[in-house]
């Protein structure tokens, strides 16, 4: 009987090893198959030309920022930061006439700031030269 028990154990061990190999192979195919199915759409998407995204122009961004500062000034007419930023934005938008009003208010609020006076004088001088 001892011989048949050993044969049974050897046979049983071979069956278990064979099943382990089959499960390992099936698992590997499943893993690689799922990886391939996940990678293919990514590769297809990367190879397709991307549509041009309409980005807002710099001018429209500046105009939106200026509107934001105008809203702040409606609530707080003496907000010096908003006045300064609004005047700078209007100068960047080449709206010198629009920049004069906030600068005049800044000069009234802060007569000690010479830079506000100098910029205001330069803008008024440029306006006078361009109208001639």
Task: State the main characteristics.
132 residues, 83% helix, 2 domains, 0% strand, mainly alpha, single chain, 5 helices, Serine Threonine Protein Phosphatase 5, Tetratricopeptide repeat
Pick out the low-confidence regions. Answer: none
Supply the helix-strand structural class: mainly alpha
Distance between the termini: 123 Å
The 3D shape can be described as rod-shaped
How would you name the CATH homologous superfamily of the largest domain?
A: Tetratricopeptide repeat domain
Q: What is the CATH topology assignment of the largest domain?
A: Serine Threonine Protein Phosphatase 5, Tetratricopeptide repeat
* Mean pLDDT across all amino acids: 85
Q: Count the strands? A: 0
> Hey, roughly how much beta strand do the residues contain?
under 5%
Helix content: over 70%
Biggest sheet character: none
The helix tally amounts to: 5
Named at the architecture level, the CATH assignment of the largest domain is Alpha Horseshoe
Give the SSE order as H and E letters.
HHHHH
Count of separate structural domains = 2
Question: What would you say this structure looks like, in words?
Answer:
There is one protein chain. It contains five helices and no strands. By secondary structure, it is an all-alpha fold. It has two domains: 1-44; 59-131, Serine Threonine Protein Phosphatase 5, Tetratricopeptide repeat.
What is this entry, summarized?
The protein is mostly helical. The protein has helices at 2-47, 58-75, 80-92, 96-109, 114-131.
């Amino acid at each position: 009987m001892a011989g048949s028990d050993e044969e049974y154990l050897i046979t049983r061990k071979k069956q278990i090893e064979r099943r382990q190999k089959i499960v390992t192979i099936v698992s590997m195919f499943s893993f690689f198959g799922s990886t391939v199915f996940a990678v293919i759409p990514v590769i297809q998407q990367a190879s397709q030309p991307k549509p041009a995204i309409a980005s807002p122009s710099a001018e429209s961004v500046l105009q939106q920022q200026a509107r934001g500062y105008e809203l702040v000034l409606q609530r707080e007419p003496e907000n010096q930061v908003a006045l300064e930023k609004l005047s700078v934005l209007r100068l960047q938008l080449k709206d010198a006439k629009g920049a004069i009003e906030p600068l005049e208010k800044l000069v009234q609020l802060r007569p000690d700031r010479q830079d506000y006076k100098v910029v205001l004088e330069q803008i008024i001088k440029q306006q006078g030269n361009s109208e001639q």
